[in-house]
Amino acid sequence: MWVPPADHPLRRLFAGYAEHTFQHELGIADPPLIDYLSQLLSQFIHMDALYRLRNVQGKPLEQVVDMMREAQEMPPEGRTTREVHRHIGDFTLFWTGVFPEAVNRLRTPACKDHLIDYCEQGKRSYYIASTFEDEPFKDEAPVLRRLSREFELCAYGLHQVRIEWERAQPDAQDQIGRRLLG
User: Fold this and answer.
1) Spans of all domains in the chain
2) What angle do CA 164, 178, 100 make, to 5 degrees?
3) How many CB atoms lie within 10 A of CB 82?
4) Are 116 and 125 in contact (CB under 8 A)?
5) Whole-prediction pTM value?
6) What is the dihedral sign for C-alpha 30, 33, 37, 40?
7) What digits encode the pLDDT tens for the residues 52-78?
8) pLDDT of 70-119, one tens digit each?
9) Burial class (CB within 10 angstroms; exposed 0-12, middle 13-18, buried 19+) of 2
10) Are 112 and 62 in contact (CB under 8 A)?
11) Quick check: 96 and 119 in contact, CB under 8 A?
12) What is the rounded radius of gyration, in angstroms, for the C-alpha atoms of the chain?
Protein backbone atom coordinates (compact mmCIF):
# COMPACT_ATOMS: atom_id res chain seq x y z
CA MET A 1 0.00 0.00 0.00
CA TRP A 2 1.26 3.44 -0.92
CA VAL A 3 1.88 5.72 2.04
CA PRO A 4 2.66 9.26 0.92
CA PRO A 5 5.71 10.76 2.62
CA ALA A 6 5.10 13.85 4.77
CA ASP A 7 6.69 16.10 2.13
CA HIS A 8 4.58 14.78 -0.77
CA PRO A 9 2.58 17.66 -2.35
CA LEU A 10 -0.76 15.88 -1.93
CA ARG A 11 -0.06 15.10 1.71
CA ARG A 12 1.00 18.72 2.34
CA LEU A 13 -2.17 19.96 0.64
CA PHE A 14 -4.42 17.82 2.83
CA ALA A 15 -2.32 18.60 5.92
CA GLY A 16 -2.88 22.32 5.34
CA TYR A 17 -6.63 21.89 4.93
CA ALA A 18 -6.88 19.55 7.93
CA GLU A 19 -4.77 21.80 10.15
CA HIS A 20 -6.82 24.86 9.23
CA THR A 21 -10.13 23.08 9.73
CA PHE A 22 -9.34 21.27 12.94
CA GLN A 23 -7.27 23.97 14.66
CA HIS A 24 -8.88 27.19 13.46
CA GLU A 25 -12.49 26.20 12.86
CA LEU A 26 -13.02 23.39 15.39
CA GLY A 27 -10.45 24.42 18.01
CA ILE A 28 -8.73 21.03 18.02
CA ALA A 29 -4.96 21.39 18.20
CA ASP A 30 -3.85 17.77 18.05
CA PRO A 31 -0.92 17.31 15.62
CA PRO A 32 -0.92 13.46 15.73
CA LEU A 33 -4.66 13.41 14.91
CA ILE A 34 -4.27 15.95 12.11
CA ASP A 35 -1.30 14.03 10.69
CA TYR A 36 -3.29 10.79 10.78
CA LEU A 37 -6.25 12.36 8.98
CA SER A 38 -4.14 14.07 6.31
CA GLN A 39 -2.36 10.77 5.64
CA LEU A 40 -5.75 9.01 5.42
CA LEU A 41 -7.00 11.54 2.87
CA SER A 42 -3.91 11.33 0.71
CA GLN A 43 -3.82 7.51 0.84
CA PHE A 44 -7.49 7.01 0.03
CA ILE A 45 -7.26 9.05 -3.15
CA HIS A 46 -5.98 5.78 -4.60
CA MET A 47 -8.70 3.17 -5.02
CA ASP A 48 -6.26 0.36 -4.29
CA ALA A 49 -5.74 1.78 -0.77
CA LEU A 50 -9.45 2.32 -0.17
CA TYR A 51 -10.21 -1.29 -1.16
CA ARG A 52 -6.92 -2.86 -0.06
CA LEU A 53 -8.45 -5.65 2.03
CA ARG A 54 -8.86 -8.86 0.01
CA ASN A 55 -10.63 -12.14 0.56
CA VAL A 56 -8.88 -15.51 0.20
CA GLN A 57 -9.53 -15.45 -3.56
CA GLY A 58 -7.81 -12.05 -3.81
CA LYS A 59 -11.02 -10.13 -4.53
CA PRO A 60 -11.26 -6.67 -2.90
CA LEU A 61 -13.59 -6.41 0.09
CA GLU A 62 -15.86 -3.49 -0.77
CA GLN A 63 -18.45 -3.79 2.00
CA VAL A 64 -17.94 -3.28 5.71
CA VAL A 65 -19.81 -6.50 6.53
CA ASP A 66 -17.25 -8.49 4.54
CA MET A 67 -14.39 -6.65 6.25
CA MET A 68 -15.94 -7.42 9.66
CA ARG A 69 -16.25 -11.09 8.76
CA GLU A 70 -12.61 -11.12 7.71
CA ALA A 71 -11.60 -9.63 11.08
CA GLN A 72 -13.72 -12.16 12.99
CA GLU A 73 -12.13 -15.10 11.20
CA MET A 74 -8.60 -14.04 12.21
CA PRO A 75 -6.87 -14.90 15.46
CA PRO A 76 -7.64 -12.10 17.95
CA GLU A 77 -4.01 -11.15 18.47
CA GLY A 78 -1.56 -9.87 15.95
CA ARG A 79 -0.89 -7.19 13.42
CA THR A 80 -3.33 -8.42 10.80
CA THR A 81 -6.37 -8.23 13.07
CA ARG A 82 -5.38 -4.74 14.18
CA GLU A 83 -4.83 -3.61 10.60
CA VAL A 84 -8.22 -4.92 9.46
CA HIS A 85 -10.00 -3.08 12.29
CA ARG A 86 -7.99 0.06 11.63
CA HIS A 87 -8.92 -0.14 7.95
CA ILE A 88 -12.61 -0.55 8.79
CA GLY A 89 -12.38 2.57 10.96
CA ASP A 90 -10.57 4.47 8.21
CA PHE A 91 -12.99 3.27 5.52
CA THR A 92 -16.11 4.25 7.46
CA LEU A 93 -14.62 7.58 8.57
CA PHE A 94 -13.57 8.44 5.03
CA TRP A 95 -17.00 7.80 3.54
CA THR A 96 -19.04 9.37 6.35
CA GLY A 97 -16.76 12.40 6.53
CA VAL A 98 -15.59 13.15 3.01
CA PHE A 99 -18.45 11.76 0.92
CA PRO A 100 -21.47 11.38 3.23
CA GLU A 101 -23.79 11.58 0.24
CA ALA A 102 -22.28 8.32 -1.05
CA VAL A 103 -22.95 6.39 2.18
CA ASN A 104 -26.58 5.81 1.23
CA ARG A 105 -25.43 4.41 -2.11
CA LEU A 106 -22.94 2.16 -0.32
CA ARG A 107 -25.75 0.94 1.95
CA THR A 108 -28.56 0.26 -0.54
CA PRO A 109 -30.98 -2.58 0.29
CA ALA A 110 -29.20 -4.78 -2.25
CA CYS A 111 -25.91 -4.48 -0.31
CA LYS A 112 -24.85 -6.41 2.76
CA ASP A 113 -24.06 -3.10 4.47
CA HIS A 114 -27.72 -2.08 4.40
CA LEU A 115 -28.19 -2.45 8.16
CA ILE A 116 -24.71 -1.34 9.23
CA ASP A 117 -24.30 1.99 11.00
CA TYR A 118 -21.00 3.26 9.61
CA CYS A 119 -20.39 5.59 12.58
CA GLU A 120 -20.94 2.88 15.19
CA GLN A 121 -18.87 0.33 13.30
CA GLY A 122 -16.09 2.86 12.74
CA LYS A 123 -16.00 3.71 16.46
CA ARG A 124 -15.93 0.02 17.40
CA SER A 125 -13.19 -0.82 14.92
CA TYR A 126 -11.00 2.09 15.94
CA TYR A 127 -11.42 1.09 19.59
CA ILE A 128 -10.40 -2.51 18.87
CA ALA A 129 -7.37 -1.34 16.85
CA SER A 130 -6.40 1.01 19.70
CA THR A 131 -6.10 -1.87 22.16
CA PHE A 132 -2.91 -3.04 20.43
CA GLU A 133 -0.44 -0.95 22.39
CA ASP A 134 2.78 -2.91 21.96
CA GLU A 135 5.56 -1.88 19.59
CA PRO A 136 5.23 -0.64 16.89
CA PHE A 137 1.62 0.41 17.59
CA LYS A 138 1.90 2.23 20.91
CA ASP A 139 2.33 5.70 19.38
CA GLU A 140 -0.77 5.34 17.22
CA ALA A 141 -3.05 3.81 19.90
CA PRO A 142 -4.01 7.19 21.48
CA VAL A 143 -4.98 8.60 18.06
CA LEU A 144 -7.13 5.55 17.30
CA ARG A 145 -8.78 5.85 20.72
CA ARG A 146 -9.57 9.49 20.04
CA LEU A 147 -11.00 8.61 16.63
CA SER A 148 -13.20 6.04 18.37
CA ARG A 149 -14.46 8.53 20.96
CA GLU A 150 -14.87 11.48 18.60
CA PHE A 151 -15.76 9.74 15.34
CA GLU A 152 -18.63 12.09 14.45
CA LEU A 153 -16.55 15.21 15.17
CA CYS A 154 -13.72 13.90 13.00
CA ALA A 155 -16.19 13.02 10.23
CA TYR A 156 -17.59 16.55 10.44
CA GLY A 157 -14.06 17.95 10.31
CA LEU A 158 -13.24 15.86 7.24
CA HIS A 159 -16.38 17.14 5.55
CA GLN A 160 -15.23 20.69 6.29
CA VAL A 161 -11.85 19.81 4.76
CA ARG A 162 -13.68 18.71 1.63
CA ILE A 163 -15.59 22.01 1.52
CA GLU A 164 -12.28 23.90 1.80
CA TRP A 165 -10.62 22.00 -1.04
CA GLU A 166 -13.74 22.42 -3.19
CA ARG A 167 -13.66 26.17 -2.59
CA ALA A 168 -9.96 26.42 -3.38
CA GLN A 169 -9.94 24.02 -6.31
CA PRO A 170 -13.39 23.43 -7.81
CA ASP A 171 -12.02 21.01 -10.41
CA ALA A 172 -10.34 18.88 -7.73
CA GLN A 173 -13.67 17.70 -6.35
CA ASP A 174 -14.83 16.54 -9.75
CA GLN A 175 -11.59 14.67 -10.37
CA ILE A 176 -11.49 13.05 -6.93
CA GLY A 177 -15.19 12.23 -6.93
CA ARG A 178 -15.04 10.60 -10.37
CA ARG A 179 -12.11 8.42 -9.29
CA LEU A 180 -13.78 7.27 -6.09
CA LEU A 181 -17.41 7.02 -7.04
CA GLY A 182 -16.88 5.58 -10.49
Assistant:
1) 9-181
2) 55
3) 23
4) no
5) 0.88
6) positive
7) 998 878 899 999 999 999 888 876 665
8) 888 876 665 588 999 999 999 999 999 999 998 888 878 888 888 899 99
9) exposed
10) no
11) yes
12) 16
